[in-house]
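Entry 14. Ran structure prediction on the chain below.
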Amino acid sequence: MEKITAVKGMQDIFQPEVRLWQHIEALIRSEMETFAYREIRTPVLEKTELFVRGVGGGTDIVKKEMYTFSDKGDRSVTMRPEGTASVVRAVNEHGLLNAGEPVSKYYYIGPMFRYERPQKGRLRQFHQFGVECFGSDSPFVDAEVIQILYNILTKLKLSDISVKLNSIGCPECRPVFRQNAEKYFGAVKDKLCVECNERINTNPLRIYDCKTPSCKENITGAPVILDHLCEGCSQHFESVKRALAQIGVPFVIDARLVRGLDYYTRTAFEVTSKHLGAQDALGGGGRYDDLVSELGGQKTPAIGFGMGIERVVIAVKTQNIDLGLGSGLRAYVVPLSRNEAEYAFKLLDILRKADISAQMAVSEKKTGVHFKDAEKAGADFAVIIGEDEIKNGTLTVKDLRKRSQQSVSEAELAAYIKNN
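Output, structure tokens:
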């Protein structure tokens, strides 16, 4: 029979790469504890209306990329393409927003789905880590959220990362900017793609995010939102910049950065890597002060970001960063014959009860082959059990990293492995 393979654009993740994923996720959770964020887990499947209203009906995500279908009750449902709208829906539905201090701070880690052309770092099922902070319009909250993403990436030892920063204004700023943008793009519309021609009068801000080469060329001379900020937005942006400088987070101003979602206001940011090629974003986000109310909640300022875990994994692997992860397997117990297997199994249990990761060889092979198996499994030590070891009450422990061996008693074995 024909072998069944994974669905196009979706991948299996297994050892040794899973170890890297686990390390990244553990680092994320540690950082979230430091910044006092709480985990939230939302369903993979949501009502389609959530993303049409939340992400924006004019975005590529909603128009082209969502996995949307009717369930058995003839209700339109969608596999979540991003995390923010789901979190906003959840905090609205369950009354999780605090009024005033402290602010409500959540994070999530999970799979997202977009039907797009699979390529390096861009799959149809991808995994995203994100944070969402509700209840404050303080520029210091903006700086803190950006700092979280920067901290995680630098603690993974990634180099050549760039924090790009912009402000895309608010409903007070945008009308004048929009008029100027419509006028500019209207004059060059014959040089824009079909979709950007449609965006001229519906959402010209989206043109700045277009990846079509002809559109990118003609964005160069277009108006920028930074030249149209109202006093409130301008002061907010200046405060964000000062706060980032104060805590040592380097950034560059990218006046054409708009991100790909309709809900952003004021601060927008993106962190990129030189090691990812054309699709260089590791993560990004911004402020969305109107989204909570647009999805049925009270008027609530908010800010957040999403980080693509697949892209971070690619960046770590491309830079050949040694995070010292190993396999996690500490001991490989080797009975040299069936006669020693029962004792070896008892010893295996002793090691595991001491919280030592251990595995046992279950087939009879030559000693040298057992050593190769232990190395292949990524073990740090091979514990050899033969007739002599049982008779003498000592075990032969081979350090597979140092290429040395030591005789160790059963009573001392766990402590020896833990301390070496």
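DSSP finds 15 helices and 16 strands in the chain. Will compare against last week's run tomorrow.
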